[in-house]
Amino acid sequence: MNAVYKTSLPLRTATDPDPAVSAPLQAVREAMGMVPNMYAAMVNLPALLDAYSHGYQKFRAEAGFTPVEQEVVFLAISRFNGCHYCVAAHSFVADMMSKVPTEITDAIRDGRPIADARLEALRTFAHAMTESRGNPTPAQAGAFLAAGYSEQHILAIILAISVKVISNYANHIFHTELDPGFADRAWTPPRAAPVERV
Predict the structure, then answer these.
(1) With the C-alpha atoms ordered 51, 169, 196, 8, is the resulting torsion angle positive or negative?
(2) Per-domain residue ranges for the chain?
(3) What's the whole-model pTM score?
(4) Which of 11, 42, 90, 144 allows an S-S link to 125, with CB 3.0 to 4.6 Å?
(5) Tens of pLDDT along the chain (198 residues)?
(6) What is the rounded CA–CA span in Å between residue 99 and residue 95?
(7) Residues 98, 70: contact at Cβ < 8 Å?
């Protein structure tokens, strides 16, 4: 496998002298009781963390998916993108907060179909949207809509992909170390074909 770049930028802290860095991390610590390594990495460019947080909150609040469906979408995208950090973190959130049955989370992590037909249609379409870079076939979109979802849900998946591109790619660049709280749900991406270098 070809070596991949790792940034030299450090993880920042909630005591950073730059308020553009410390203020959002203090807010994260107050909300979550910790500062996840991913946030400490992304805040090296405060605008990146701000864009991620805003999009993430909007998806959670306004996308029209249940908490279980939200995790299916985030996990499907993060798995396709090979993000060890986000798959582990969303597995933890799925288990502890969104109350996703473990068999659903584990199926997505393993690349297996979900037994629930509606959730499987959602997983399949989120994967197809990510893989095709937003160019699903009419048959793929038709299957998603036939499962009871709407075209607004397609837009919501675009929002989720946008959010996950920010976090997945940032984690790739930082090789973000998994926080201890997520360690029980550690995940290793399957071996992929080498990335074409241009």
Answers:
(1) positive
(2) 64-185
(3) 0.94
(4) 144
(5) 468 999 999 999 999 999 999 999 999 999 999 999 999 999 999 999 999 999 999 999 999 999 999 999 999 999 999 999 999 999 999 999 999 999 999 999 999 999 999 999 999 999 999 999 999 999 999 999 999 999 999 999 999 999 999 999 999 999 999 999 999 999 999 875 444 444
(6) 5
(7) yes
